[in-house]
Amino acid sequence: MTLSADFDLEVRLLLEAIFSKYNYDFRGYSKTSVHRRVQSALEQMGFQNVSALQERVIRDPKTFHELLQFLTVPTSEMFRDPAYFRVIREKIVPVLRTYPSFKIWIAGCSTGEEAYSFSILLHEEGLGSRAMIYATDINPRSLKMAERGIFAAERIREYTQNYQASGGRASLADYFEAHYGAMLFAKKLKENIVFADHSLATDEVFAETVLVSCRNVMIYFDDALQNRALRLFYESLSHKGFLGIGMKESLRFTAFNDKFEELYKEEKIYRRI
Known about the structure:
Structural class: alpha/beta
Oligomer: single chain
Number of helices: 10
């Protein structure tokens, strides 16, 4: 996508305005990613240019929250990358069993599919009552959807295949009820999940954890914001705590490469040194 220098300037001014008005900080996001998302927002929201969008965003919070859906790209799936969850189940869970209680942080939880995936896994391994899962995101609409625990029934087959490939011990259908073309997940899965607003760009550490899972989030950050996020994860993790990142993400060339041991290369799971 080739865009003019004026477009780049307008986007930077838009991000500054969003930060000043709403305290949402997208200034450290990848320029290419932000440009693509803003261009998509212009086309679908019916604005001729970024300046017109900025003016409306400043004056109308509803327009900002509509734009937020483009800037955050709230997409997820249950047991995404099944090999990741299989390693969590087979290699990490035995370590978690040694804790009388523990906390897990899912950063950038989007609409909650990963949080419910972890909750199912932990319940199947007999650790549901010991675990507290903090699932955080900056998108209030996504968090509200996550708290409801309702997902489109059309994705049942995909989620079931992921669940089985991840080493699931039962049937995914045991954990939800079908209601009017949607999956409603069982209340017991929500009992150990706290959904909360948290920004990796502006907020600080809020709890000590033994596992942080932040997958397919940092890929949209620039180098400085990646390092900020990794600092938060490092400070949150207990001694020898675990960090899981996205399959296309890496700690190489970051300031924290030497602060984590690479445990499972293919699944992108690290351990705090």
